[in-house]
Design a protein that fits this description.
283 residues; 9 helices
Length: 283
């Protein structure tokens, strides 16, 4: 009986593994097909440079390509909303000699960060701020960690309902590049911002953030241009006006860069092995 049960368990596991592998390969093939469209053939188009190391999908590659075009200043980042730190837009940068600040509201996730990234925290390469961020406290928290004249290479924000208002109200720093999650449900010409009067956490619905157009207008007022979006229709990338050069498309409108939601493509970016972050050397 026990032997039969074990065979059954192994069979179910093997079947699940095969299905997972098939679905992942289908997603990869679809991704290749989509990126082969003439829309992405221009070398100045950022989308096709995407790849994943620690990001949710293609953000690591796009961020790397942006800094290939504008160079880094001091390799400092700030990321707001990182969960346990194993799937962020800046974890890969820690492998490349960057340093920075993570802000996360969830106590359990912060404990995991302190466990997994302790060797970098001890060296003051990575700082952790355990706070629920909103438009009223963001500048106060940033001022505790950075001088207002300090150049920050990258700011990434993904905090659901608070993202738009928090970014809008940041004035303590003037980062060179901004990455923000937009709500791709709303097409490129729609202006829409989620209201969150009670300052609640995101409830895992499609009521979050803001449309790409709303981010474009707001970021233009702050002195940034939209230079690209990830292929899944999740993240938008903005570069400060003084850093825009001829390596970018000379079109900063949402109609050029908007990507419709393709969340099903996340399967193409799944790692086959468990994601970890442990001590390493750059040699």
């Amino acid at each position: 009986m026990i032997k039969k049960l074990l065979y059954r368990i192994l069979w179910v596991f093997a079947k699940h593994t095969r299905i997972h592998s098939i679905n992942k390969n289908l997603a990869k093939n679809n991704l290749i097909k989509i990126l082969s469209d003439k829309k992405y053939t221009n070398e100045k188009k950022l989308t096709k440079f995407g790849f994943k190391v620690y990001s949710q999908s293609d953000e690591d590659g796009i961020i790397e390509e942006i800094f290939n075009r504008i160079n880094t200043k001091n390799k400092k980042f700030i990321e707001i909303g990182v969960q346990d730190g194993l799937e962020t837009n800046t974890t890969y940068l820690l492998n490349k000699g960057w340093s920075g600040l993570w802000i996360e509201a969830n106590d359990k996730d912060v404990k995991k960060i302190n466990d997994n990234f302790n060797f970098l925290i001890k060296k003051n390469i990575l700082s952790i701020s355990n706070n629920f961020i909103d438009s009223n406290n963001i500048n106060k928290i940033l001022s505790k960690n950075y001088d207002s004249k300090e150049e920050i290479d990258l700011l990434s924000i993904d905090i659901g309902l608070q993202t738009y208002e928090v970014l809008k109200n940041i004035d303590h720093i003037n980062p060179r590049v901004i990455v923000v999650e937009y709500n791709a449900k709303f097409r490129p010409d729609i202006m829409w911002v989620a209201k969150n009067l009670k300052k609640n956490f995101w409830d895992n619905t499609d009521h979050f953030g803001a449309s790409l157009k709303s981010y474009q207008i707001m970021c233009e007022k702050k002195g940034y241009k939209l230079v690209g979006c990830g292929i899944l229709g999740i993240n938008a990338f903005f570069v400060r006006n003084d850093l825009i050069n001829d390596k970018f498309l000379n079109n900063f409108e949402t109609k050029e860069h908007y990507e419709e939601p393709k969340y099903w493509l996340l399967k193409a970016y799944e790692h086959d092995l468990k994601i970890t972050f442990k001590e390493f050397e750059n040699k």
